[in-house]
Amino acid sequence: MSSISSLRPRDDKATYMKINPKAKLSRKLFSKTIETAATRDGYGQGLVSLGEKNEKVVVLCADLTESTRCRHFAAKFPERFVEVGVAEQNLAGLASGLAMAGYIPFISSFAVFSPGRNWEQIRVSICYSNFNVKIVGSHAGISTGPDGATHQALEDIALMRVLPNMTVVAPADAIEARKATEEAAEKKGPVYLRLTRSESPVFTTAKTPFQIGRAEVLTFGNDVTIISCGPFVYLALRAAAALAKTYKIKAEVINCHTIKPLDIKTIVQSAGKTGAVVTVEEHQIGCGLGSAVAECLVENQPVPMRLVGMPDSFGESGEPDELLEKYGLTVERIVGAVLEIIDK
Amino acid sequence: MQEQITNIKKLNKIANNIRQNIITMLLKAGSGHSAGSLGLADVFTALYFNVLKHDPKRPNWQERDRVILSNGHICPVWYATLAQAGYFPKRELWTLRQLGSPLQGHPRYHSAPGIENTSGPLGQGISVAAGLAYAIHELQKSHENVFCVTSDGEHDEGQTWEAVMFAAKHKLPNLTVIIDRNNIQISGQTEQVMPLDSLKDKYQAFNWHVIEIDGHNMEEIIAALNKAKSIVERPVCVIANTIPGKGVDFMEYNYEWHGKAPNTEEAERALRQLSNLSSRTSV
């Protein structure tokens, strides 16, 4: 299993960094011994737990049972697991029919295929009727690695957040992915869960607050707000540590796991306080988290912004670290973006 | 429960009435799809007045048979049939395609009682119907039937065949697909746009049971749909050979009427022809 070492801590503990005690982050936040796991693994665990407590949950997969971690659910609840073959359009349509009958289908594939290939089926057969279907796209981002650009979903947030009725969630680590999976089942209507392949630090804990639609302030700061989602939240935390250590800049890091509906209040409040916002995501800069935040701030609290993400480009084959480095998805880039927009 | 009508003349009269309502709906709407709507009036009449177990007064009755319409553009026939059966007042029909109407240009799930699914973009209905049939049969261990009405043209869509494979894999006993084999689609004859023949051989190769019928012969339609309910070894495909624009001579067989509504003069001619037919087949 490849892991993203640039998302690994390097003992850059920062005395100036003020962590929100209510966030209950891992005590090993910046320790080299912090655990790592992929968000898809949290999903796999969440499904099993859901299977036990909610008999309406059914899981459908398009021939990627192992890769999407549906196999645990499939082994334990074979009567509620449906293998549909390599047929993502049918995957979405079947889910619509199951939802009509009162079930809560989770449909799993790689994000490039679902919601990539079956976007229109999701729009018409799921979203328009506000059906209770959970679309789970794994292998999002270039950290998907050696499989190359064809398999690295960098447009999925855009595709999903533009749809009426849709909720979009990108969990920050495996623990949060598990919580998001379980909460998605409780939430009425369609939800998109964005998952990743590579292992990344598990920096939240069972006690870290999580609620779909509510962004969490992880560190307090007055100089700049750094907003991120998915495992890149950890990159944002490391950037905040570097900013504190090297520049004595206090950054407020927000885990904005829910891209839609956006937690406008938390974001506007923080931007109003810091006067500068940097967004960080493993997605095309266009139409992703950064755009969502920009849409929110331009109406409510215009401040200087920088958007860090994929620069309107496809990825390529390579190890996750090599790719993140090549495409500028690094702590250094985030620090640079912050320095560009704050008055220090 | 909807009373089952077995008198063929009565059923034909209902179908004719539905056709007349379709013409008036399309005239008032000023746009919409005439040919397919008229072509399927007999099939919809057979379903809602003879074959289905349903209750217009309880549209969400758990034990009802379901109709999923895949080729949503022919919804005027669905709406007219539902109104005829008493799901909603007939006056609603005259609001088709107008702002604020529950009767959207293409069907929207539950926008009016009896509308069981959203459709329009082609090729999705069999997937939805298969998911519903799977939920009923495999998960709820129940027996309600799901009838999915599709067009021949939408068999161009790859998703159709994904769903056909899925239904065969699970041998869904409660799923029947009805294909409106009228040989036209929006740009011309199906066999010129994208050859489909033989649909029968294709479905058989996919391990479905296939019944081919005259889609305007009420007795044949009813016999085929009842047979479909009784076949539990595999899903059933009923290929209903129909005449697009059936009942209106200048619309029949003419693909140009696929996506067109009649103007006042055309509607008057159409209604005259249909009411003449009706008086000839009166009970």
TrEMBL record, chain B:
SUPFAM superfamilies: Thiamin diphosphate-binding fold (THDP-binding). It holds the Pfam family Transketolase_N. Keywords: Thiamine pyrophosphate. Gene3D superfamilies: 3.40.50.970. Residues 12-270 form the Transketolase N-terminal domain. It comes from the Bacteria. Its cofactor is thiamine diphosphate. InterPro entries: THDP-binding, Transketolase_N. PANTHER family: TRANSKETOLASE N-TERMINAL SECTION-RELATED. Belongs to the transketolase family. This is Transketolase. It comes from Candidatus Komeilibacteria bacterium RIFCSPLOWO2_02_FULL_48_11. The lineage of its organism: Bacteria, Candidatus Komeiliibacteriota.
